[in-house]
């Protein structure tokens, strides 16, 4: 009897602990508005040979146009290659002891003008259509001002007073389970899904590149100039980008991490961000930190003229 009672008690205790643990896990997920974004991660991987999986309608169109032009180029190269082989075989010196003196053929000249013109037309029409599509930043749900700094990003949500924060790459010694080395950041850019998001992109110092390959966004951040772009993300998940304009010694330490969440989670995150986000929560790694201002210039002058007085 005591043995049966002990088994029943043990099973009950185990079930209680399990339910308690699951309850805490569910509560933690429920209180984290960004938890759902971890269910899908669009990140680069080893030996990747193509564009990343498309995460926006704009990237869908870019990917389609690239494949469309690639097939046209493949056909042109194959035709020209076959034509060259045909000419080498049929019109070589052995097969033509007496060379032809023909220097003009109206039909061939018309063909090699008309066909390239048609090819250019079928390429330029969808290309111009895509350019206009990319440039249409009208009627956005919200606008985010993106500012590049050496070497971090700053995000200012124009419609949310006071929501202006920095985003630094997480150093290797601070990485947590689920973080991706050289891509994860302390404060990601959080956006609602299924809404048009406009970006105003600029820089505070040197040229940077705001590059989101899976979302079809590529704009230079230029000091004193505002570039515009936009995106629309239909799927909840995490998306990555990178500064792709060489901007100094820590250029590789400027990843972009985007958390795309539902509108309810986005509104909940705004409250969390306003209460908890701080500037520069991760200090730069001393090993990769830039030299003090003007030190490189001083070293260059020293090397050319001797010690500075």
Structural notes for this entry:
The structure is a single chain. The chain is α/β, with parallel strands linked by helices and 309 residues long. Among the domains are: 57-94 and 107-135; 142-276, Cupredoxins -  blue copper proteins (Immunoglobulin-like). It is built from five helices and eleven strands, in the order αβααββββββββββαα. The strands form three sheets. A five-stranded mixed beta sheet has the order 4-3-2-6-9, with no helix packed on it. It has a four-stranded mixed beta sheet with strand order 1-10-11-5. β7 and β8 form a beta hairpin. The model is unreliable at 4-30 and 282-309 (pLDDT under 50).
CATH architecture of the domain at 142-276: Sandwich
CATH-defined topology of the domain at 142-276: Immunoglobulin-like
Run of helices and strands: HEHHEEEEEEEEEEHH
Please state the overall shape, judged from the principal axes of the Cα atoms: elongated
Number of helices: 5
Query: What structural category characterises the helix and strand content?
Result: alpha/beta
Name the strands of the widest sheet in spatial order.
Answer: 4-3-2-6-9
Largest sheet: 5 strands, mixed
Q: Residue-averaged pLDDT, rounded? A: 82
* Uncertain runs: 4-30, 282-309
Under CATH at level 1, the class of the domain at 142-276 stands as Mainly Beta
Separation of the first and last Cα atoms: 94 Å
By DSSP, the count of extended strands is: 11
CATH superfamily of the domain at 142-276: Cupredoxins -  blue copper proteins
Global Rg? 29 Å
């Amino acid at each position: 009897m005591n043995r049966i009672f002990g088994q029943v008690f043990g099973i009950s205790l185990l079930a209680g602990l399990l339910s308690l643990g699951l309850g805490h896990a569910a509560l933690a997920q429920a209180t984290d508005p960004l938890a759902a974004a971890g269910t899908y991660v669009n990140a680069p991987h080893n030996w990747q040979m193509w564009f990343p999986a498309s995460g926006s309608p704009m990237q869908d169109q870019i990917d389609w146009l690239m494949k469309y032009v690639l097939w046209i180029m493949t056909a042109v190269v194959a035709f020209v290659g076959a034509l060259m082989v045909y000419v080498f075989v049929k019109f070589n010196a052995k097969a033509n002891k007496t060379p032809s003196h023909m220097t003009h053929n109206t039909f061939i000249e018309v063909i090699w003008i008309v066909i390239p013109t048609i090819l250019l037309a079928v390429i330029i029409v969808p290309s111009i259509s895509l350019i206009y599509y990319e440039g249409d930043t009208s009627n956005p749900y919200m606008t985010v001002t993106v500012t590049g700094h050496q070497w971090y990003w700053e995000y200012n949500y124009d419609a949310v007073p006071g929501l202006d924060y920095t985003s630094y790459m997480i150093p290797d010694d601070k990485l947590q389970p689920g973080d991706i080395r050289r891509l994860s950041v302390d404060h990601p850019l959080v956006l609602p899904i299924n809404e048009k998001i406009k970006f105003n992109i600029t820089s505070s110092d040197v040229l940077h590149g705001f590059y989101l390959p899976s979302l079809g966004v590529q704009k230079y951040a230029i000091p004193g100039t505002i570039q515009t772009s936009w995106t629309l993300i239909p799927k909840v998940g995490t998306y990555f980008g990178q500064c792709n304009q060489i901007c100094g010694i820590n250029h590789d330490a400027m990843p972009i991490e985007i958390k795309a969440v539902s509108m309810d989670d986005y509104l909940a995150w705004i409250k969390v961000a306003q209460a908890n986000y701080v500037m520069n929560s991760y200090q730069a790694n001393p090993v990769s930190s830039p030299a003090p201002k003007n030190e490189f210039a001083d070293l260059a002058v020293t090397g050319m003229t001797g010690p500075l007085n």
